[in-house]
Each structure stands twice: as C-alpha cells, then as structure tokens.
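#dry-run=false #mode=assembly
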Amino acid sequence: MAEMRRDAVGSVRIANEVVGLIASLAAAEIDGVVKSGTGANTGFAGLLNKNRGVKVEVGEREAAVDLYLSMEYGHRLPDVATAVQENVKKAIESMTGLDVVEVNVHIQGVQLQDENTEERVR
Amino acid sequence: MRTFDRVFSLILGLFFLALCVALLGSSLGLGHDIAVSWFKAIFSDKLLSLLFFVITGAAAAYLFAMAFRSRNTNETIQYSTPLGEVRISIQAIEDLALRAAKKIKGVRDADVYVKQSQTGLALAARIGVAPDVAIPEVINELRQKMGSYIHDTAGISVADVEVTVRKIAAEIRSRVE
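#status=ok
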C-alpha cells in the first residue's frame, strides 16, 4: 500500500496494485507490446506467470515502475520501450498525481502477433 | 522461467505434496491402510510399476537437468534512458535472431543462442540447409542479415555470428512428374 498523504480534508492512500494496473494498461496501449491475455499470458500458463507484468514501488509523492513485457515482431524495440516509458509516466502522473521517477522496461521475449486478433479487411 | 518449466514444476510439486500428505496421514494412523494398499497395488502390478518408473525417471532427469543448467537465463542487455532503464533479455535477442535465420532462403531449420564474447555480443547458429544450395552463400547471407536485423530491431550491435551447418535436409521427392 502506498504511504498515506495527508491534506487539509483527510488522507489519500493509493494502493500499489492500482498504480500497477494503470502502468499495465498504459503499456498495453502501445503498438508493439504483446497484450496480456495472449500467448504466454493466457489460461493456465497465465496463472503461472510469476511477475504478471509489473512491479511498482510507491511512496508518498513518488513512484517507480518495473514492467516485464513481451514485444511483437516487426517493431523496433528501443522505440517501443521509449513509447512505453513515456505513456506509463504520463498515465500515472495524470491519474494519481504521483511523480514517476523511473520506468524500467524489461523485454522478456519477442513473439508473433496473434493471428486471431488481427482484423480482416475486405 | 519458461511456461513448460513452470507447468512441469507444478505437476511435480503436486505429486510430492500428495506423497507428503499420504506419509503424514500414515504417521498419524489416518488412511494408513489406503496408502499401503495403494503402494502394494503399484509394486505388484508390473505395468503400473513400469508406468511409475517412467514418470519418476523423467522427473528425476528433469530435476538433474535443472540443477546443472549452466546458462544464466536472467542475463539481459541493458541501457539507460532519461526515463529509466531498458533491459532486453537474451531470450528476446534469440527470438529475433531465430526469426531472421528462418527467413533466409536455403535454411530449413535453425537453432540460435547468444553468447557473450570479449568483443561484444556474439550469436551462434546451428542450421539445417536445403539440399543443392551453395552453403557458403547461405552462411554469408545469414551472418549479414542476422546481424543487421538485430541491430535494426533491438539497437544492439552484433560482433560475430558463428554458423554451424549441422545437416543437409533430405530432398523432398514429388510423387508425380
């Protein structure tokens, strides 16, 4: 649980899991990131996926995020990683008011895009 | 840890947990007869004994292999950015290298692994090639394209690509002419 922040009206406490969820969703928005719910994150294998993709450290005013991701083939990894860092930082800061000091991206693998999720254009 | 490793470890864990519960129950006098009759059934039935031999043998081999696995699967290549660190796992680089290798005309199958060398990142590829291809040309193309693909996609320079041709694939004969 994040440390409590007190203001004139009362206290505000943001759960680590909330910050982690915001980070995961922000990362998933980036083109080139394998979405959770595909490949190794599905079904029984998904239950065993130790990190579940994100680890956060949240203080009273600051947050640090570690993201464990798989990338899709066909995208330049440094560009995707930078886009993830920027989007995650922006999302957490705008939604929680916390200052994000670092967003570390751990690229664990590269896989083909799931053909079932591709739209067919006629 | 790969998904297969996790699933197999889970199954082994459940197996030993069941054994543990049976032994605990037996020590407390609970279900002792059931456990004994179960073990008697296994040891008195040759087919059942053989089946459990195969299962426990496979489990033992797997555990030994895990114990003596020398590669550090947590190795990463990392660089810093203003917003934090980016770490690319060795597995990710191998995935990219394997994809590049399989795109080369003349390469039927490939196995790629990364090794650190004194001059930088090095790749080792073991390939099977199609029959009737010029192997030196395939090797040259593989080296050039694999290195440039890793550089373009991951931003990592490859110092060396070592290629071993382990087999020539059998010619596919058409049944009709």
